[in-house]
Amino acid sequence: MEPTCFPAVSRVAVSGGTHGNELTGVYIVREMQKQEVDKVGSVSVTTVLANPRATDACRRYIETDLNRCFTNALLSAPITDSTPYEMRRAQELNAQLGPKGSEKAVDLLIDLHNTTANMGLCLIFDSLDWLTLHIYKYIQSKMTKMPVRAIQLNKPRSDAYCLESVGKHGFAIEVGPQPNGVLRADIYNTVKTAVDLTITWLQEFNSGCTFEGGEVEAYIAAKSVDYPRDPDGKITAVIHPKLQDNDFKLLQPGDPVFLSFSGETVNHEGEELYPFFVNECAYYEKKIAFHLARRETFTLPSIRLRT
Ligand SMILES: [Zn+2]
To answer: What is the E.C. number (predicted)?
Structure first.
């Protein structure tokens, strides 16, 4: 079968600090800026500290979660005196790196995140994209000492709310476990390696290499589960010790998921699914104890540069 062709990927943006207390991306971007990385071979590189005020305060956000502000509706909403800082910032970033959905948008946007969940290295995609899945396959083939997983959020582009949706292609690199406001050398090196491998892949792609197709697995987000709560909304249970740190380990009906403060176990009900973002610190306020996903295998076509 003939390879599927894509135009050159020559403008890349690497962003960190979209959540100001996820420090790996903050320091990778600062280091790239210090080293004045603005071109690597055939690729121009823009580095962005996405939420500088939240980064200065070492908080996830100041007024609202920046990484929920990139829907078409919010990006085109009029700015008024009461518009939250992050919604203004989202429109600035869209002007700098997008506009989303336009020819002017950067070819690839990589947004760097950390999670308190034990997820290892994950690439998170808004929707299926052969080119970025090939980058995922490449990273997976080079970083063999740890599991490298892909998560698909399955949102139509207009409703996609994350910063990476501003690029023509994009993904988030999500690595954990790392507490908020903390740096760890192992996680810093993991993210740095994934960014460097992405840029290496782009050089090979832009130089005309054909990348053979094959199968990759991805976790497709299916639903989220909240903590058990009392009528006042206070949580009444924690993640069960048998689920804690067991992201991506298949949950079967009857497996324990919560342990109440009075000692009762709550079990998983319904179909077999894979948990992820288990006990993510920032999701308490979003009423999410963990997400659940199906695992699917995708057959990628071979791809190469359109000449
Ligand atoms: Zn984040």
So the answer is: 3.5.1.114
DSSP conformation letters of 264-303: -EEE--SS-BEEESTT-GGGTTTT-SEEEEEEEEEEEPPE
Determine the distance separating the centroid of ligand 1 and the alpha carbon of 61, expressed in angstroms.
10
Answer yes or no: CATH 2.20.25.160 is held by domain 224-290.
yes
For this structure, is 174 an active site residue?
yes
SS3 assignment, position 219: strand
**What are the structure tokens assigned to 96, written together?**
């700098």
| Domain layout of the chain by residue ranges | 4-217+299-305, 224-290
pLDDT tens for 55-108 read 999 999 999 999 999 999 999 999 999 999 999 999 999 999 999 999 999 999
Give the span between the Cα atoms of 234 and 90, in whole angstroms.
32
Cβ-based neighbours of 196, under 8 Å, separated by 6 or more: none
Which overall architecture, per CATH, does domain 4-217+299-305 show? 3-Layer(aba) Sandwich (3.40)
Structure tokens at 187: 């996680």
Q: What's the 22 CA to ligand 1 centre distance in angstroms?
A: 6
Q: How much is the pTM?
A: 0.97
The SS3 call for residue 139 is helix
Average pLDDT over residues 195-208: 97
Asked if residue 157 has pLDDT above 80, the reply is no
